[in-house]
Amino acid sequence: MSSEPVPAARPVGIGFIGLGVMGRPMAGHLLAAGHELHVHARRPAATDGLVGAGAVAHPTPAALAARCGVVLLAVPDLPDVEAVLAGESGLLAGLDHPLTLVVCSTVSPDGVRALGARLAEETSGLAHVVDAPVSGGEAGAVAGTLAIMVGGEDEDVALVTPVLRACGRPVHLGPLGAGEVAKACNQMIVAATVLALGEASVVAERAGLDLGALLDLLGTGLAGSQVLEQKKRAFVEHDHRPTGKARFMVKDLGFATEEARRSGTATPQLDVLRTAFTELTDAGMGDQDVAVVQAWIESGVSR
Fold first, then answer.
1. If you classify domain 181-298 with CATH, what class do you get?
2. Which residues of the chain have pLDDT under 70?
3. Which of 183, 231, 232, 245 is catalytic?
């Protein structure tokens, strides 16, 4: 007879850690969908509105994990994920039941693959990892219409898909890491579009065009995109207050470069994009919205 302890049953609670611009509305949608929601934040005040709507706040990640079978993490990068997991009060402290971690952050594909393998070994198979980065910006998070790019084992993804549907459209794209590869591709396209819009807006305004009228018109043709629609006002009003900080593009495009090198893919456009966002960040503009490419180009820094 085996003397190994039998894991406790998986709790029904859904946990959420990372209640920022994207995470807070996502957590709200989970509540609205009827999930038993448990939250933790470094700043307790960040949980107030959710607690008022029915969520349960916990002082530590470990306390949250004790009540949850699935935990969504919407923190900036893998070091932040590791900080949530580690230590006597971390998510994995005293883990005695199956727990699926859903990494909604934009992180390194190789990094999340390594994380999944390590946690499976360290927890004797209790902890599973799914990567599910999102796209759609703050507007998509608020509306519950995010594109959710999912990677992981079939059984793990089947478990978390009904949870993710509360926040948008989850699509299973392959094994662990596939979601992050998809997000890297997404960021390549978004960065290229934003940079093109920034350049075009400066050219148009300096030629005397009505930029608002131009962007409205372009939105009805082949140049139209969700990026144009979401960033149009920022370009017209030169309002670069952040919804997504430009400096995060340096990280995201770095992940895209890593994956491209792993697959032996030439990236002539990606190289230009990384240079542009690195230079504007070095110029002190990185904490503004990605639409700050407009001001960066106007400043002549890129010449």
1. mainly alpha
2. 1-5, 301-303
3. 183
